[in-house]
Write a structure and sequence with these properties.
Shape: globular
Low-confidence stretches: 357-366, 368-390
CATH architecture of the domain at 2-63 and 420-475: Roll
Bound molecules: zinc ion
Structural class: alpha/beta
Number of strands: 17
Strand content: 15-25%
Number of helices: 16
Radius of gyration: 22 Å
Distance between the termini: 54 Å
Mean pLDDT: 93
Helix content: 25-40%
CATH class of the domain at 2-63 and 420-475: Mainly Beta
Length: 498
């Protein structure tokens, strides 16, 4: 049993987002055991009751952030010249040419780089949507699992897949695709071997056909059925990311993307969808009615010119919304605090303002309206309306951006023990130095706003399941510079653009 003593803790709690000064956090190698005023614990600290007492006076402590969408392997091709200025489909076509050369070792090294970057900025849980298995190669899910285990991050590893190649009307080259039956067999294999259904699991397997333009309808349907034969297996895919995708679905299937998934039984409380930019009101209503989650990836969406997801409308409708950095080839970084800032800025652009500002339907304050975050943000009286800040035209609030990256992500992944630091939460937290120059001045005003509005700093120390994985701003698993050098050499030798 350890104690993080006499520190400042920020945590979602019930409806509120609380900043607790001079508090202490007691935890073991699994969960938070107690959170209370430091004076309550002082006698026990003085008596040496704890295995370790970590001095917290110089730190700001937040729950480990939850990233709901990533492609860890894509750090191999971040900033690839041919993909710097392209929209999604051309971006992908250029990248497939590099990704078809993936092998186990390259995926493993890239995953380490991406995970290190997440941890260094306070993210302790990530989903990884891994769908690239070049034909005849040695790439396996274990390449990612090994990296996550070494670095100590909590992982939702999505067994992704592409099975609709160009010869059958899909976007990717045929040699980047598998066949449906092989995919389903490997889903069974990794579920049997690695899926952990326990509340505090460090590793879960989700099933995730890549998207409607590179998977068969049958794979989407059969994967959903397979997931539901098991306990606690989530479904994930990309959806409604671009107008090109919408056109593709209309031409090939005669319906829009959300309808396609609905017809294949691929919506529900066990589903979270990346992007969801191009939605109409009926589709937002359907996601809410089916309790389908959404992973919002604003940086990637802006980088690729895809658009801005209507998260205010989604949240107001009660949809569970989490935040994702998306793959490193379209972000090109893994800083989830920075992503929360990006979400706030994107939601404040005129194009993303609620419809009420255009004189149409009033839109309530987003997260106050009950966004399906268990125990954290139930609907307020009056269905979420009537709060003083519900005025039409209200800017997306700082506190809501923080919640997206914490309890929002936890709700998206159906993990109520994540995203907060109340007793019973997983012992996942990040500590930022109060004397970090990036926060100087701001932290004296408002610690939450300092983390969201200032340039996101590196975390000083990070714990996952009570284990320290970042110390003094460096990863503890291995030498960070060596990893970066190894990555640069690998990319220069095999993945560099012309
Ligand atoms: Zn993605």
């Amino acid at each position: 049993m350890k104690i993080l003593h006499n520190t400042t803790v920020i945590t979602p709690s019930g409806h509120a987002l609380r900043t607790l000064h001079n508090h202490s956090l007691v935890f073991d190698d699994c969960r938070v055991l107690a959170l209370g005023p430091a004076t309550d614990f002082q006698p026990r600290v003085a008596a040496g009751e704890f295995d370790e007492a970590i001095a917290g006076e110089r730190h700001l402590v937040i729950p480990g952030l939850v990233n709901t969408h990533h492609h860890l392997y894509q750090s191999l091709t971040r900033c690839l010249p041919a993909a710097q200025n392209e929209r999604l489909f051309d971006w992908l076509l250029n990248l497939y040419e590099r990704w078809r050369h993936l092998d186990y070792e390259a995926v493993n090294i890239a995953a380490k780089v991406s995970i290190a970057e997440l941890l260094l900025h306070g993210c302790t849980t990530t989903s990884d949507h891994f769908y690239m298995f070049p034909r005849g190669g040695d790439v396996k899910m274990e390449a990612v699992l090994d990296a996550a285990e070494q670095l100590g991050i909590r992982l939702h590893l999505c067994r992704g897949a592409m099975t609709l190649g160009q010869s059958r009307g899909g976007l990717p080259p045929d040699d980047c695709c598998e066949n449906d039956q092989d995919v389903l067999a490997d889903c069974q294999r990794v579920l049997d071997a690695y899926h952990d259904t326990s509340d505090y699991a460090l590793r879960r397997i989700d099933l995730a056909p890549c998207s409607p333009f590179n998977c068969t309808r049958e794979l989407l349907r059969d994967t959903a059925a397979l997931a539901r034969e098991r306990d606690g297996v989530l479904l994930h895919t990309h959806l409604a990311e671009t107008l090109d995708e919408q056109r593709y679905c209309l031409e090939r299937y005669g319906c829009r993307p959300v309808r396609l998934l609905a017809d294949l039984d691929f919506l529900g409380p066990d589903v979270y969808l990346a992007h969801c930019i191009h939605l109409n009101d009926d589709e937002i209503g359907l996601l809410a009615k089916t309790n389908t989650g959404v992973s919002h990836n604003p940086t990637s969406n802006l980088r690729l010119g895809s658009g801005i997801a209507p998260i205010r409308e989604l949240l107001a409708a009660g949809v569970r919304v989490g935040l994702g950095v998306d793959g490193s080839s379209s972000n090109d970084g893994g800083n989830l605090l920075g992503e929360a800032r990006q979400a706030l800025l994107a939601a404040r652009t005129p194009a993303a303002m609620p419809k009420s500002t255009e004189g149409r339907v009033p839109c309530p304050s987003p997260l106050k309206a009950g966004a399906g975050m268990p125990g954290a943000m139930p609907k307020s009286a009056g269905g979420g309306r009537g709060h003083a800040s519900d005025d039409a035209g209200q800017l997306f609030p700082v506190a809501d951006a923080f919640k997206l990256a914490t309890v929002g992500g936890a709700a998206c992944l159906n993990r109520p023990v994540l995203g907060h630091l109340n007793p019973g939460a997983a012992a996942d937290f990040a500590m930022f130095r109060v004397d970090d120059i990036a926060l100087a001045g701001a932290i004296a005003q408002d610690p939450i706003a300092a983390l969201i509005l200032c340039a996101a700093p590196r975390a000083d120390r990070v714990y996952v399941a009570g284990r320290e994985v970042i110390h003094d701003g460096r990863i503890t698993a291995f030498d960070e510079s060596e990893l970066a050098n190894q990555m640069n050499e690998l990319v220069a030798a095999r993945f560099r653009g012309d």
